[in-house]
Amino acid sequence: MLLLFTSFHEANAQQKISGTVVDEAGMSVPGANVIVQGTTTGTVTDFDGNFSLNASSGDVLVVSYVGYLNQSVTVGNATSITITLKEDAAQLDEVVVIGYGTAKKSDLTGAVAQVTAKSFEDQPLVRVESALQGRASGVTVAGSGAPGKGIKIRVRGVNSMTGNNDPLVVVDGVFGGDLRTINPNNIASMEVLKDASALAIYGSRGSNGVILITTKKGSGKAKVSIDQFLTISNVNRRISSLSSSQFARQENAEFIANPVNDPADAPYSDARIAELEANPLKYQDLMFQTGYTNNTQISVSGSSDDKLRYFLSGNYMDQKGTQITSNYKRYSFRSNLSKEFNDKFSVAANVTASREITKNDQDAFGTADGSSILRAITWDPTAPVRDENGEYILRSPREVANNNYNPIRRLELSDHQVTSDRLNITLNGKYNITKNFSYTLIGSVSTINGITESMRVEGDYDLIGFNNINFRNFRSTSHQVSNILNWNKAFDKHNIDITGVYEFQGNRTINNNYNTTDQNVYGFYHTDNGTTENFDNNGSQTAIESFLARAQYNYNGIYYLTASIRQDESSRFPEDNRTGYFPSGAIAVNLAKFEFIENSPLSILKFRAGYGEVGNQSINALAAFSLNNQGGFWSPNGGGTILSGEEQTTRGNSNLTWETTKQTNIGLDFGFLNGRISGSIDFFNKDTENLLIQRLVPGSTSITEFVNAGEVNNKGVDFSLSADIIQKSDFNWNANFNLSTLKNEVTSLYEGLDFITGNVNSIGGQGIKLDVLKVGEPIGTFWGYKALGTWKSTDDIPVDSDGAPVAQPGDERFDLDPDNNNERKLQTIGSGLPTLTWGFNNTFTYKNWDLNIFLNGAHGFDVYNLVRGTLRTNGGNRSYLATDANSRWTPENETDIPKAGSANLLNTSRWVEKGDFIRLSNLKVGYTFSEDAIKGIQNLQLYASGQNVFLITDYSGYDPEVSSQVRTNNGAASNADSGAGIDIGAYPNPVSFTLGLKVTF
């Protein structure tokens, strides 16, 4: 009995067991569960994958972690053990949001690009759009460096010639999200639906692509996270122009060159030139300043034992722009709560609120003579900002250069402020009727309240038509209700998933606007002494009702089939044409399941093909109806009774209907080494028909109408590749590369026309329009004259019908039309749409250090550099400010730069430059402290980074990627794509350096 007792005691004596949990690459696995089998005794691995607990030699340790197979290890006589976890391929298969549901990435039949928080968390972001840039194939992102300015996103090209080409943004199932207001730290993942088989589920909303955003949800123990960074920004590039003293000497030389002038009366004395040489006036430096961004993010997240999950987040961002007086502030709050009451019923409630304040956006000022930046570049470089009494100088004392009003004074005295408040409340309830059948209800209400308080200084106190006061109140309310039924069943080797949706959405807007001119009291947004006063009150109300059915089927994970049909009814169209039907279908074959592939290095090989149709309703609420405005007063007899009149502004079109895009996609997904290297390639072709085009009514100069006319084609290739290049215990290198090609082409216009000129005005309204829609050319094509240098004295200069030479030696030479009296030939001279874009993201980790390098580029596009043209006595500029002034054509030196006094034009290919660029968008170095380094802190990271660190380009302006907000005839902003690549002094992307801290308690 004694011997038996002794042996029993020895068998059950416990000892301290320590160990480390690692993955197959030898990397530590923090947070893994280690439990003694059959007991409640257990622990969790620390930051370095280490654990310790008491166990007997005969005990079995069970180790589990999400994404890995459970591993069982007998303790034995060891006191220290290493446990290696193997990846569970089924669990690691990424879940992708596809609209009204989710799917495994391996089950996709459509073209969907996914961008997770992991791919952009190494870059300090204040804008969501920056997370998409260069990280999703088929998606191009371009915008302005102005704080708070909207950024243009395009998915697989542009469809509309005059309408909106922005993709639909869906946040947690709710339509109409504004990326500018979303805190990037709140995002868990983004999916971009690109081909029509994926888009058709959104019907009329999906014509320009769909961006699905899933925000973070709480899980695990309660934790508090703080992300704080400070960014310093500068515009390091400068546009080359004459210095103050060089300009003065040139003005003297041109004055003396005129034989009627006395050299003694030259405008600038030697003393003044010497003074300017010693103390030059650099208006570009005066226009720019050092900007900063202060971003503070605090979040609280976790879950409780009663299955309550929570994520609360607050964000404050203050961005001082690199242009003087420009500023943007954002306050935002998000609350994501979800509660699982039982296996059948769960509820989620999301509340978001934000306030944005934008000050002195340069596009809010008059741009007829170029932007504020262009005005500074072309202002008199010899005139100081203030006189000897400290008062602003209003104009150039010698009426040289652009002779506009002092650009520094204009911004420093103006106060144009736009405040937008947003609130969105979403409830999401799900009830599992049976194990395989569920009902989901999504209800959302949102409101936007915007106020514009503007006092813009444009001229002198005593001049009529300047110093504009504007007060605007804007309110928009919208609601959405989505009813979603889903049935899915797996039996034998068959898997079926069927979704049905009924939803409706409504929107109502009200706009009140008041403005006056000639206010002479600064800092007030109301007046009783303005010369002109205008009041405008308007609003709109729209609604859309939709039905959807989608079926997904796969056989044994080999053969996949997806089909959907959506019906939309929109109030924007006449009653007989309101309903649109949008079908789609896609197939996929998982070739990796075939025997001849199973034993090859390929771990993923899937072929996909799909076709679908989507619609577009992006016209204003009353576009289909005739509208009149007050037309002033008149007297039928030339005197006596005064009557009020009306004039028609819009002619209705009872035949107006849906714009439709039909798209075909063929794709291949591939992977090697158990997914360590993976990627995809897609070929797409989409045709947009019955384009919604706004045009002038034939024979009218002011009445417009919407018509269905014209076709546009977009075709190209999307390619993406991801690889874990190095996987070692203390060193890793992960890389992601994507590339897209695009060819955009207008294939037809209305009424048999070959081309129609656009509506983008040149600087100062000079010359023809800058853009054109032409069959065989892309949207955003530049329109003008082809420049061929200068006419030389030895050239045989053509004559017109009267026998007079069309030019003189030294004049700019153009391509002429011999069939039209040797007039200059108008033609396409460039395009602002890139034909190739790419991004390359690299993340390196070495022990506690991490390094991120992100490059992106765009190629095959042009920039219409009107800044360079304006420096050469164009666009209202009276003086030659370019540094090549001394290289102009003379009889003794016949160059290709037109002679002094020659009429320079803005609408010529002389100002069209290649915009190709490569940019180092992000370079970040960070250090993460070990979990036990500071008591009570789970994670602590310090980092430094640079954004837009360097730019490789031949473009002579600030930045080839940005475009100006160009204006139409009536002063409204033009289509962002018809004006793509046009630079009239766009706000440049700055070079920024950031210091940041991330800490989790």
Structure overview:
With 1001 residues, this protein is mostly beta strands. Helix 6 packs antiparallel against helix 7. Mean pLDDT is 85; it is low at 1-12, 461-465, 522-528 and 969-973. The strands form 12 sheets. The protein has a 22-stranded antiparallel beta barrel. A 5-stranded mixed sheet has the order 10-15-16-13-14. A 4-stranded antiparallel sheet has the order 3-2-5-6, with no helix packed on it. It folds into 3 domains: 12-90, Immunoglobulin-like; 228-232 and 289-784 and 832-1000, TonB-dependent receptor, beta-barrel domain (Maltoporin, Chain A, Beta Barrel); 245-279, no CATH class. It contains 12 helices and 53 strands. Strand 46 and strand 47 (849-859) form a beta hairpin. The two termini are 55 Å apart. 8% of the residues lie in helices and 47% in strands. It is found in: Cell outer membrane. Its main location: membrane. It comes from Algibacter mikhailovii.
Give a brief description.
Belongs to the TonB-dependent receptor family. The chain is mostly beta strands.
